[in-house]
Amino acid sequence: MPKQKTHSGAKKRFKVTGSGKIMKQSAGMRHNLEKKSSEVTRRLNMDQTLAPADAKGVKKLLGKYGK
Predict the structure, then answer these.
(1) Which residue ranges traverse the bilayer (predicted)?
(2) Which region, left, alpha or beta, applies to residue 35 given φ > 0 means left and ψ of -120 to 50 means alpha?
(3) What's the DSSP call for residue 10?
(4) How many CA atoms, within 13 angstroms, populate the side-chain half-sphere of residue 6?
(5) For residue 17, what are the contacts with CB-CB under 8 A and spacing of at least 6?
(6) What is the rounded distance in angstroms from the CA atom of residue 27 to the CA atom of residue 24?
(7) DSSP string, 6-61
(8) Rounded CA gap, 43 and 65, in Å?
(9) What is the CATH number of the domain that holds 32?
(10) Would you tell me which of 7, 12, 21, 40 could form a disulfide with 36, CB atoms 3.0–4.6 Å apart?
(11) Three-state SS for 43?
(12) What backbone torsions phi and psi does residue 40 show, to the nearest 5 degrees?
C-alpha cells in the first residue's frame, strides 16, 4: 500500500508545534488595514492554536495520524 500524500492546501495553511498542537494564521489581515488600530493588527498578526475538534481533521490531512 503506498503512502498517503500530504494535502497541499493544508500544508500551506497550518503548522504543527513540537507538542502536537496545530497553529494557523489569524483571519482579517488581508485588506482594510487602514481602518484597524495598531493594537488590533498586532493581535491579528499572531498565530492562533486550532480548536481540538478541528485539529483532528487537519492532522489527518497533514498525515500526522495513523488512520
Answers:
(1) none
(2) alpha
(3) H
(4) 12
(5) 23
(6) 9
(7) PPHHHHHHEEE-TTS-EEEEPSS-SS-TTTS-HHHHHHHTSEEEPPHHHHHHHHHH
(8) 31
(9) 4.10.410.60
(10) 40
(11) helix
(12) -70, -45
Cell 498578526, residue located: 45
2 occurs within a structural domain: no
Task: Give the count of domains, the chain.
Answer: 1
13-53: pLDDT as tens digits: 999 999 999 999 999 999 999 999 999 999 999 999 999 99
* C-alpha span between 19 and 38 (Å, rounded): 31
DSSP 40: H
C-alpha cell at 24: 494557523
Q: Distance between terminal CA atoms of the chain?
A: 13
- pLDDT band for position 66 (cuts 50, 70, 90): low
The residue range of the domain holding 49 is 8-62
From CA 59, how far away is CA 14, in angstroms rounded? Answer: 9
